[in-house]
Design brief:
single chain, alpha/beta, 11 helices, 8 strands, 45% helix
Length: 269
Amino acid sequence: MIPSGRGTFERDGVTTTYAIEGAGPAVLLIHGVGARLDSWAGVVAALGGRFTTIRYDLRGHGESTKARGPYSIGLFTADALALLDHLGIARCHVAGHSLGGMVAQRLAIDAPARVDRLAVLSTACSRTEEERRRVLERLAVVEDGIPGEHFRRSVSRWFSDQFQRSHPELIAQYAARNMENDPHCYAAAYRVLATTDLVGEIHRIQAPTLIVTGEGDVGSDPRMAGAMHERLPGSRLEVLPGLRHSILVEAPGLVARLLEEFFAASTAR
């Protein structure tokens, strides 16, 4: 049994902060660019301790070392594997949101023996030329380093109109949290998000896979989710009505239910 609590470990001069809660099958939860392990808090609470959840701050995020880039998807994946090694976890379920979903895909491709079941949430794949152009434009805004500008331009892509109207205090909190990001690390991580596309390799994923995105997510849209689904025979696809990119924030209970149902199927085989 993995003891609950917060901890740190060091790899190549980078200290990674992690948090462990619950009991039962282990699930590694990987957050998105500019976020931190707390972005999974609502989902973890909704899981009610029925899984051993392992959350961590990616390098350059949260309480982990603000190591300057460049970063790569391989570097983020190596950090995730190092965390599993540090905790003595040989195999577990893996769920990733946005950039975290790309890391989760890479992990399942490169280290299939370590991944039991895979959940890919709000993750870009098979971008069109126009979608690549738009994400590179967003990268340029991040690299310009104007504090808060990327959040201001993106809030309507991330949150539904109803959520913005109903929770202005939370939107303000997320705006303030975004401002706390180290600009160099944020840009380095966003470059990985903007330039990574594993569409040519995801057919190598062996783990049973759940693919989830919001109906109104324009950066990781249902077409992209469908492209992943087509390339992974036997995968499960869920498009969540009325939601955009920030499904962990807007619908943590729904996300938790989907994850619990999908991961529980592993023990029912």
